[in-house]
Write a structure and sequence with these properties.
224 residues; alpha/beta; 5-stranded parallel sheet; 7 helices; 5 strands; 11% strand; CheY-like_superfamily
Length: 224
């Protein structure tokens, strides 16, 4: 059973957090609140998140400073950040947001449909990456000679390879459909780049599986 993705909502005003929850509840994912930058950083120490919605204007540690801390940590540096701000100070202010590592910068009041659509893209990419890691873990088990069936019995290599190939094919099909959707909609460059990175990883995993097929001459292929 695929676990739900976690979305981190960071805003010092409870009414804004409530509004974000109302907008994103239709995605049926796990929404986590943080009322300050410090609280957000604490949540990021223990949980993995698909995307972070981060308010810019907060007392104490503001959104820019919070984002800088997130991007400095190896564990969290690749989590997409969408900045939300009630004040538009012009191009310089927007540039500062992107320089801090944001993938998007949205001014309030924002269109709920647009925000939900943007967040859903990053949630879907996150889920595909989780599936890819699962396939890579199964492949490593096979390479190490430790493949086990669900009941705990040893499974024949050919049977495990067939199972891995089928599971990978399902992820490949979903990733291809997602990439086509992103291309057709001309969405955020960051999302398109992330999807392309996912497809490259899938290609490497497919090559590794092909190298394990009986009669293959490629040996053990590397999975990056």
């Amino acid at each position: 059973m695929v676990q739900k993705a976690k979305i981190l909502l960071v805003d010092d005003r409870p009414e804004n957090l409530l509004a974000l929850e109302a907008i994103l509840s239709a995605l049926d994912q796990t929404l986590v609140r943080a009322s300050s930058g410090e609280e957000a950083l604490k949540a990021l120490l223990t949980d993995d998140f698909a995307v972070i919605l981060l308010d810019v204007q907060m007392p104490g540690m503001d959104g820019f400073e919070t984002a800088a801390h997130i991007k400095r940590r190896e564990r969290t540096r690749d989590i997409p950040i969408i900045f939300l701000t009630a004040i538009n100070h012009g191009p310089h202010h927007t540039f500062r947001g992107y320089a801090a590592g944001a993938v998007d910068y949205i001014s309030k009041p924002f269109d709920p449909w647009v925000l939900r659509a943007k967040v859903s893209v990053f949630v879907e990419l996150y889920m595909k990456n989780c599936q890819l890691r699962e396939q890579a873990a199964l492949l490593r088990l096979q390479l190490e000679g430790g493949g086990k069936a669900a009941a705990g019995e040893a499974k024949e290599p050919a049977g495990l390879l067939a199972e891995l190939s089928a599971r990978l094919a399902a992820v490949e099909e979903q990733a291809e459909a997602l990439s086509k959707q992103l291309g057709d909609e001309s969405t955020d460059a960051a999302a398109v780049a992330t999807a392309a990175h996912l497809e490259r990883k899938l290609t490497g995993l497919r090559r590794a599986l092909d190298a394990l097929e009986p009669g293959a001459s490629g040996g053990q292929a590397a999975v990056n």
